[in-house]
Specification:
Largest sheet: 6 strands, parallel
Radius of gyration: 18 Å
CATH topology: Undecaprenyl pyrophosphate synthetase
Helix content: 40-55%
Order of helices and strands: EHHEHEHEHHEEH
Oligomer: single chain
CATH superfamily: Decaprenyl diphosphate synthase-like
Number of strands: 6
Shape: globular
Number of domains: 1
CATH architecture: 3-Layer(aba) Sandwich
Strand order of the largest sheet: 3-4-2-1-5-6
Length: 235
């Protein structure tokens, strides 16, 4: 069976799910945070090695102050509730995005979780927070340009690997399967470099409704895809 090592998910639909049930948007985000634990366990049991979750984008700052403030508090809730279990299961918390722009308390919670789990060798649970792929690529290009300016790198030496190594995801393999919940069919500035040859799944279920069974269905579909990476089959 085709291995699905790296799954990335755009966790969409929390607010709309809550609104449809007559609840505030924040209630949907709380249920969504709880679902991170459920899906991380399921992914691990399905053999996924890297699970990257889009928690907060660089564009999400445009939301209301109340909603942004609530979202900034969710990492503390998530790790207070489930960090002990994550550690027991061997999960390693890893982070991508521009953490410098986060509130100090949020950044500390995230960095503490990453540090506490750094020796674990199980599932890498990668939280993309204050992440935007264009911003990530901009930061990578800037760092490469600085090396060229310092004489540490010649322009003709810049390869694809040079760029990959300058990205936040330098320690992870490219994405095999990208899933977006809630029926929307767009990428939303997520891992644009890393999904160059990923398979895409857009599912109708919102993130609070996204179950281990739906994840298994997506991975099963992935195993039947013919990934040619720009080549041709032997037919």
């Amino acid at each position: 069976m085709k291995e699905c090592r790296h799954v990335a998910i755009i966790m969409d639909g929390n607010g709309r799910w809550a609104k449809a049930k007559g609840m505030p948007r924040t209630a949907g985000h709380k249920v969504g945070a709880d679902n991170v634990r459920t899906i991380a366990i399921a992914a691990n049991e399905l053999g996924v090695k890297y699970l990257t979750l889009y928690a907060f984008s660089t564009e999400n700052w445009k939301r209301s102050n109340d909603e942004v403030n609530y979202l900034m508090k969710l990492p503390a809730y998530l790790f207070k509730m489930y960090m002990k279990e994550f550690l027991e299961r061997g999960f390693r918390i890893r982070l991508i995005g521009d953490l410098s722009a986060l509130p100090e308390a949020t950044r500390k919670v995230l960095l503490d979780a990453a540090d506490e789990s750094k020796d674990n060798t199980g599932l890498s649970l990668i939280i993309a927070i204050n992440y935007g792929s264009r911003d990530e690529i901009r930061r990578a290009v800037k760092s490469i340009a600085e090396k060229v300016k310092a004489g540490e790198l010649e322009p003709e030496e810049i390869e694809e690997e040079t760029i990959s190594d300058a990205l936040d995801t330098r320690d992870f393999p490219d994405v095999d399967l990208l899933i977006r919940t809630s029926g929307e069919q767009r990428i939303s500035n997520y891992l644009l470099w890393q999904i160059a040859y990923a398979e895409l799944e857009f599912v109708p279920e919102s993130w609070p409704e996204f179950t281990p069974e739906v994840l298994a269905r997506c991975i099963e579909e992935y195993t039947h895809r013919d990934r040619r990476f720009g080549g041709v089959t032997n037919e």
